[in-house]
Amino acid sequence: MSYCRWSDDDFRCDFYAYGDRDGYRLHLAGVRTVWDPPPSPYDLKVIRTEPGEFRQVYRQYHQALERAERIPIKHPLAGQMLQFNTLEEMRAKMAELLAEGFRAPDWVLERIDDEIGETAP
Fold first, then answer.
1. For the chain, what percent of residues have pLDDT higher than 70?
2. What are 30-86's pLDDT values in tens digits?
3. What's the rounded Cα separation, in Å, for the pair 25 and 61?
4. How many CA atoms lie within 13 A of 6 on its CB side?
5. How far apart are CA 33 and CA 42, in angstroms?
6. Residue 71 near residue 30 (C-beta atoms within 8 A)
7. pLDDT in tens, 70-80
8. pTM of the model
9. What's the rounded Cα separation, in Å, for the pair 112 and 98?
10. Computed from CA positions of residues 111, 75, 29, 67, in that sequence, does the dihedral angle turn out positive or negative?
């Protein structure tokens, strides 16, 4: 299960976090996309438009993404992959990294808290 991906929040997420058979992995971006995105083709209102209109929005969005500035993240762990045994451990590290300037969607910790609550005895 993926908790967040680079593409979340219009490619303004610095984490790729997921569970696998070995526990939980947290990949930290080494660079950050800096941009003011145009309308997203992944917005449900756009997805439901005519195919020609969707293609135009998609093309404009991805062309802008290609031109967007990418800057290095200045943090000792930037670009690293961290492995955790429990979801609670990964969540704690993510909260710490968010406080230190990494970016993720507002909902990511809440999503993890919900899953932790569902699996609690």
1. 99
2. 999 999 999 999 888 888 888 999 999 999 999 999 999 999 999 999 999 999 999
3. 29
4. 10
5. 18
6. no
7. 999 999 999 99
8. 0.90
9. 14
10. positive
Pairing of strands 31-34, 15-20: unpaired
Identify whether the C-beta of residue 19 lies closer than 8 Å to the C-beta of residue 51. no
Whether the Cβ atoms of residue 34 and residue 73 lie closer than 8 Å to each other: no
Residue position matching structure tokens 């690293």 = 80
Give the up-direction half-sphere exposure of residue 1: CA atoms within 13 A in the CB hemisphere: 7
> 2: which 2 tokens?
């993926």
**Closest to 4 in 3D by CA, of 113, 111, 117, 101:** 111
Instruction: Extract the tokens encoding 42.
Output: 């992944």
